[in-house]
Each structure stands twice: as structure tokens, then as C-alpha cells.
Design goal:
With 701 residues, the chain is an alpha/beta fold. Among the domains are: 6-171, 3-Layer(aba) Sandwich (Rossmann fold); 180-256, no CATH class; 516-700, no CATH class. It has 32 helices and eleven strands. The strands form three sheets. Strands 2-3-4-1-5-6-8 form a seven-stranded mixed β-sheet, sandwiched between helices. Strands 7-9 form a two-stranded antiparallel ribbon. A two-stranded antiparallel sheet has the order 10-11. The N and C termini lie far apart (82 Å). 41% of the residues are buried. The chain binds guanosine-5'-diphosphate (GDP). Belongs to the TRAFAC class TrmE-Era-EngA-EngB-Septin-like GTPase superfamily. FeoB GTPase (TC 9.A.8) family.
């Protein structure tokens, strides 16, 4: 019979190197998902233990204590309280940082008191020398009643010893550290008499926390005579914490010595500079600018390559496969759809490469410290600055970057408002519209008016994000308390393995999470644009070739006429015409309507669709002709130009604020685990865009 798999739970304070230990144990054998119903990331992996025994490791969210203040922490408590949970661990591995042992051990003593076999990992052992720290391991093992693995997950030292300890988990003592009744003997005695079969510390957690555990529902205890007032409970919790620290202090007095003369003060100097009221911001913005430049510059090459490859693949497919509906679906629906997913990979990978480097080095914590005060006013977190600014490249990696924000409410607001920032897909639309309606002149001697308008649009996007964050902050009510522990981990050289795994995981999450939805919706949009009801669509070719005015056109020109006529009579064309009454007050006709509808696949489609509608040939990179054609378009009702100043401004504002990107909706769905938020985004942003454009057009026309 095969030996059963050992279930291991990794638990620890944030920044203790828990992820690195997880990576060391499991390598790339990881599965990342979400806990059902909530958006907390769930990581699991498998590990090979000596003697070919297998283990599964669950990497539980980082938590400071079992006194839950966030959904992340609830996940940890609920699992550890429910012995019947299929993931309930055989052994708990608590990871601590040797430099923060005192604080990290608080959680350890709590876990130990749940009477689960517990191993203590003292991580970052490589730093002990420099910091003058020495540990008396046997002494600590004896007084903490556990086994200790002294580990450097950075150097891969001590991992084998840890594996051996895990294998031997049955020999671990499950004796608690703290006698729970000492918190309030009278009260706990009453509890013990009422629930003789339950562990006292578990009862205490159920009473004080917002959690359930299997056999014993929270209500059962709360309805009994054991409730105490909130303030009384708080007082007892504080007493518990003090008792735990007394215990930890006593143990560390005998087992830990620090020769402080060895500790370097470089860190303090760096901290002072990086969180400086002036220089801190300057340094941060320089780093951000550098990152953007690199993301733009470096991903342009692979993105062009991907774009070209998929265009080739698609034309190859339509030429080489037998003609028919299936080939059309493959060549024009599926291949470009997959291309539309793959094209985002370079930007996502580069962005996460930089974010991981900032996080791993310890710099990100300084940024949070720096930005937190300002961003908190808008319901955002200091870390929201990264998604908001990354949004200028593309909202997709930007929204994924919001994962670094621990507080769910701040993260949600960040996700919802990030699409306002001006992404690169808006640029082609902006450029062509600006060149149509804004004269290419200098203002005040050195400002180019067109450039100024473009900058204004960027500021508008950023303003839209901040304003809507402010509004959401006022409206959104969530139950989760914000609990920010300002923590400054040490500066460290980033660990290549952590960075690489992070980049791979994020990219995979995008491709297999949002990718599926993007592909499906792109196929739908393709279908709607290339199929139509009735004879008009089907007989487009006959219709065009019979018209006498097209007799003298070249084959290419005739093809363009057919493509335009087909688009006009396709489902998208029909939708575009149907919405004309709704968009006319904004100054748009049905042709612009069609372009807006197809822009829901991706904004940059706008120009291409107009080109097709105006029969310029959809391959037309020839911006000059499209622009001339748009400029010459006359509104038959008024005799005025269609793309006049009022309509142009109205369109610019519409594209600045409307939610027109199914990929973004897909990623919001993925990251919030619900359709509710992307729908709110879609309707909220689009309504806002509609109103702003309406007002602008009506005032300007
Ligand atoms: P988590 O937040 O607990 O998951 O911690 P991470 O695994 O992300 O690590 C936090 C930081 O500590 C990163 O910068 C790691 O590179 C660093 N780190 C992790 N393990 C070690 C170690 O053994 N030694 C040193 N010096 N740094 C480490």
C-alpha cells in the first residue's frame, strides 16, 4: 500500500520568507487558485520527502496572529479550527524571520495551542552573522516544546533538515505553550464545564473571532450565557497577547543573544533617504518612469512579433485550409482571438518582473509608507500607485498588480478605477481625433496644442480614477476592517527563483484565467461583425458589382466597397444603426456607432473599423487616407463636417471614460471572482462617459 500523503500547512507573518520556503519545497509543482467565494489566493504544491513519501503543502496567507482582522486571516483560522476540513494539516510549519523572532513567535504560540503538531522554521539564517545573532537551538526546542529547522530559504540551506522533521511529524509534542485558562480562570472554567469535549483555546477563538468551526457553530456559543461585552472580550484578548509575549520573552532570554555592535546602520540611512518627504517621492517617480520606459520599449519588439506572427498564421490558415465556415472561424475568429491574448504576455511579464524586484528588494514597503497617507484619503492604498500608473501601458497587468494590496476594500477600489488611466490602446484613437480637430499650432510660444491636448487627456484619465475612487470610498461598505501594520523589512538582493516563479505564475493566471473569456468574447465579436441577417449581407458582392458607379474601380477598391457594405449589414452594423438615436445627442452617426460597438473588443479597433466603413480597406495602415476620408465626411442633415470640433471633443471624452475593453472586464471578473464588479465597471464608466460627452457636445455644437 502506498504511504499516505502528508498534509503540510505553511503559516507565518508576512515577509518572513514563507513564499521562498514554499518555493524551495515545491519548486514549480504549484497550483494557484482562489478560495471558493472569496478572492484570497490559495497556493498549494507538492513536495517529495525522503523515502519517496509525498507531501502536499498549502501556503496559507500571511498573517500576524490568529486574532483575525482580514479575510486572509480568517482563511487561516477557519482551516486550523476545522479538523474535518479536507485540507486540515497533519503538521503545521510556522515560518519566522530570525531578525523578528519575538514578534513572529506570537503566531507560533497560538498555533501550538491548537494542539496541532508544529515545526518552527527560523528563516533567514544567512543574516545571523552580519547581525550578530546567535541561537541556542536545543534550549529553544526544549522551552518551545517543538522541533526547529534553521533555514536560509535564500541559499537553500536547511531545507533537507526541514523535510526530515516533516517526515517525523508524529513525534512532535502537541502540548500548548500557554495555559488558556490563565487568561481568566473563572470564565474559562465555566467554559470547560459547558463544553467538556472541546479544546479551550479553540472555544476562545470561536468566541472572539468571526469564524465557525465544524462541530460547534459560533451561534451556539454566542447564544449561550458565555457572551461577554465587546470591550470585555478586547480586554481579555489584550491580556492573552501580553501573556504570550511574557512567555516568548522568557524563552528568548535563554535562547537568543544579539551582539548589537555588529549590526550595520546602512539600513537606517537608506530608509531615511527613501522615505524622505521630498527625495523619497523624486526617487520613486524616477524609478517608475524608468520602469515604464522599459515596459514600453522592451515589450514593443515581442508584441510586434506576436502581432505579425498571428496575422501570418491567420492568412496562412485562410489560404491553406479548405474554404468554408470552419476555416473562417479558425482564420478570423480563433487565431486572432488567441493572438489577442498572447499579445499581452510581454507587458504582463515585464511589469511583474519589475514589481517582483521592487517587492523582493524591500523597496516596495518604503513606497507604501510614502504614499499611504495620500492614497488613503481616496480609499486607496499606498500600493495602488503601481496599478494606477501601470495602467498607462495596459489595464490588464495593472489590475493584476493590485494583488499586492492586502486590504480587500482598497484592492477592489483600485481594480475598479484603474481602467480610467489612459492605456496605450486609446492612443491611436486619440492621435487621429486630435489631428482632426486640434490645429497643429504652438501656444504660448512653446506648447504644441496637439501635444497639450494629449497630455490633458492623460491627466483627465488619472483624475477620473482618483475622483471615482473618492466616490466609491464614500459608497462602498465592507465589513472588513483595515489593519495596516507599518512594517519595514530588510533590504535584500532579490531572489531569482522567487522573481521567476512570480512572473510565470502571474502570466499563467492571465492566460488561463482571463484568456479564456477574452478568446470567447473575441469570437463572438468576430461572428457579429462577419455575419448578418437577410440578403443584404449575403449578396454584398452581387450588390456592389451591379452598381454602375463601381464599374471602373480596381479589384482592390471593389473588395473594399464589399467589405464596407458587409460590415454595414452585419449584426454589428445593425447594432450600430440601432443605437444611433441614443448616440445622436453626443454628435455621432451610425458609422461612428459601428466603430464604438466594435471597439468593445479593443479600443484600437476604432480606426480600422472606420476605415472599413469608409471603404478604405481594412488593411489600411495608411493613416493619411483614413484621416482625409474622416475629414471629408459630411453630415447630410446639416451639411457640416461629421468630425467637427464638438463631435471630436465628445468622442475623445467618450473614449477617455467609457469601459470599452472586454479584456479588462475579463480580468476584473477573474480578480474579483464575481461578475458583479465588471458589470458595475461597464455600466458605471460608460454612463459617466455618456453624460460627460453629452454635456460637452451640447455645449460646443
Ligand atoms: P513572504 O512575504 O513571507 O512570503 O516572504 P517572501 O518569500 O516573499 O520573502 C520576503 C523577502 O525575504 C524577499 O525579499 C526574499 O528574497 C527574502 N528572503 C526570503 N528568504 C530569505 C533568506 O533565507 N535569507 C534572506 N537574506 N532573505 C530571504
Amino acid at each position: 500500500m502506498a504511504a499516505p500523503t502528508i498534509k503540510i500547512a505553511l503559516i507565518g507573518n508576512p515577509n518572513t520568507g514563507k513564499t521562498s520556503v514554499f518555493n524551495q519545497l515545491t519548486g514549480l509543482n504549484q497550483q494557484v487558485g482562489n478560495y471558493p467565494g472569496i478572492t484570497v489566493e490559495r497556493k498549494q504544491g507538492s513536495v517529495k520527502l525522503p523515502g519517496n513519501i509525498k507531501g502536499t503543502v498549502i501556503d496559507l496567507p500571511g498573517t500576524y496572529s490568529l486574532n483575525a482582522s482580514s479575510i486572509d486571516e480568517n482563511v487561516v483560522i477557519e482551516l486550523l479550527l476545522n479538523r474535518n476540513d479536507k485540507d486540515f494539516p497533519d503538521v503545521a510549519v510556522v515560518v519566522t524571520d530570525v531578525e523578528n523572532l519575538k514578534r513572529n513567535l506570537l503566531l507560533f504560540t497560538q498555533i501550538k495551542d491548537l494542539e496541532i503538531p508544529t515545526i518552527l522554521v527560523v528563516n533567514m539564517a544567512d543574516r545571523m552573522d552580519r547581525k550578530g545573532i546567535s541561537l541556542d537551538i536545543p534550549y529553544l526546542e526544549e522551552h518551545l516544546n517543538t522541533k526547529i529547522a534553521l533555514v536560509s530559504s535564500r541559499k537553500g540551506i536547511g531545507i533537507d533538515a526541514l523535510k526530515k522533521l516533516i517526515l517525523d511529524y508524529k513525534n512532535l509534542s502537541t502540548e500548548p505553550c500557554l495555559n488558556a485558562s490563565s487568561i481568566d480562570p473563572e470564565y474559562f472554567n465555566k467554559l470547560r464545564n459547558a463544553f467538556p469535549n472541546q479544546l479551550l483555546y479553540k472555544l476562545w477563538l470561536v468566541i472572539t473571532q468571526d469564524v465557525n468551526f465544524g462541530a460547534l457553530e459560533r451561534n451556539e456559543i454566542q447564544n449561550s450565557s458565555f457572551t461577554k461585552s465587546k470591550s470585555e472580550l478586547k480586554r481579555l484578548q489584550q491580556k492573552e497577547t501580553i501573556k504570550r509575549y511574557q512567555f516568548i520573552n522568557d524563552v528568548l532570554k535563554g535562547g537568543l543573544t544579539v551582539d548589537s555592535s555588529k549590526a550595520k546602520d546602512l539600513r537606517a540611512k537608506l530608509d531615511r533617504l527613501l522615505t524622505h518627504k521630498v527625495f523619497g517621492y523624486i526617487i520613486f517617480f524616477c524609478i517608475l518612469m524608468l520602469i515604464f520606459q522599459s515596459i514600453f520599449a522592451w515589450s514593443a519588439i515581442p508584441m510586434d512579433f506576436i502581432d505579425e506572427s498571428f496575422t501570418h498564421l491567420s492568412s496562412w490558415a485562410s489560404k491553406s485550409l479548405p474554404p468554408g465556415k470552419l476555416t473562417e472561424l479558425i482564420a478570423n475568429g480563433i487565431v486572432p482571438g488567441i493572438g489577442g491574448v498572447v499579445i499581452f504576455i510581454p507587458q504582463i511579464a515585464f511589469l511583474f518582473l519589475f514589481i517582483s524586484l521592487l517587492e523582493e528588494s524591500g523597496y516596495m514597503s518604503r513606497v507604501v509608507f510614502l504614499m499611504d497617507k495620500i492614497m488613503k484619503r481616496f480609499g486607496l492604498s499606498g500600493k495602488s500607485i503601481v496599478p494606477l500608473i501601470s495602467g498607462t501601458a495596459c489595464a490588464i497587468p495593472a489590475i493584476m498588480a493590485a494583488r499586492n494590496i492586502e486590504n480587500w476594500r482598497e484592492r477592489l477600489i483600485t481594480i475598479l478605477v484603474t481602467p480610467f488611466t489612459t492605456c496605450s490602446a486609446r492612443l491611436p484613437v486619440y492621435t487621429i481625433l486630435i489631428s482632426l480637430i486640434i490645429p497643429n499650432r504652438m501656444a504660448l510660444g512653446f506648447f504644441n496644442l496637439q501635444g497639450l491636448t494629449l497630455m490633458l487627456l492623460y491627466l483627465l484619465g488619472f483624475g477620473g480614477a482618483i475622483l471615482s475612487a473618492y466616490i466609491l470610498n464614500k459608497i462602498l461598505k465592507t465589513r472588513h476592517k483595515s489593519f495596516f501594520v507599518a512594517e519595514m523589512p530588510n533590504y535584500k538582493m532579490p531572489l531569482f527563483k522567487n522573481v521567476a516563479i512570480n512572473v510565470i505564475e502571474k502570466t499563467k493566471a492571465f492566460v488561463f484565467g482571463a484568456g479564456k473569456i477574452i478568446l470567447a468574447l473575441s469570437i463572438v465579436i468576430w461572428f457579429l461583425g462577419s455575419h448578418g441577417p437577410g440578403d443584404n449581407f449575403k449578396n454584398a458582392e452581387a450588390h456592389i458589382t451591379q452598381q454602375p458607379q463601381y464599374m471602373n474601380l480596381s479589384q482592390d477598391e471593389i473588395d473594399n466597397e464589399i467589405a464596407g457594405y458587409q460590415l454595414e449589414n452585419s449584426y454589428i452594423g445593425i447594432i450600430g444603426k440601432a443605437i444611433e438615436p441614443v448616440i445622436r445627442p453626443l454628435g455621432y452617426d451610425w458609422k461612428i456607432g459601428i466603430a464604438i460597438v466594435s471597439s468593445f473588443a479593443a479600443r484600437e479597433v476604432f480606426v480600422g473599423t472606420l476605415a472599413t466603413i469608409y471603404n478604405i480597406g481594412s488593411s489600411g495602415d495608411d493613416e493619411a487616407t483614413i484621416k482625409q476620408r474622416m475629414d471629408a465626411e459630411i453630415n447630410p442633415a446639416t451639411g457640416d463636417k461629421v468630425f467637427n470640433f464638438a463631435t471630436g471633443v465628445s468622442l475623445l471624452l467618450f473614449y477617455a471614460f467609457a469601459m470599452q475593453c472586454i479584456s479588462t472586464l475579463a480580468i476584473t471578473k477573474k480578480e474579483t471572482n464575481s461578475w458583479k464588479w465588471p458589470l458595475i465597471q461597464l455600466f458605471g464608466m460608460s454612463t459617466f462617459a455618456y453624460i460627460v460627452s453629452l454635456v460637452a457636445y451640447q455645449l460646443l455644437k
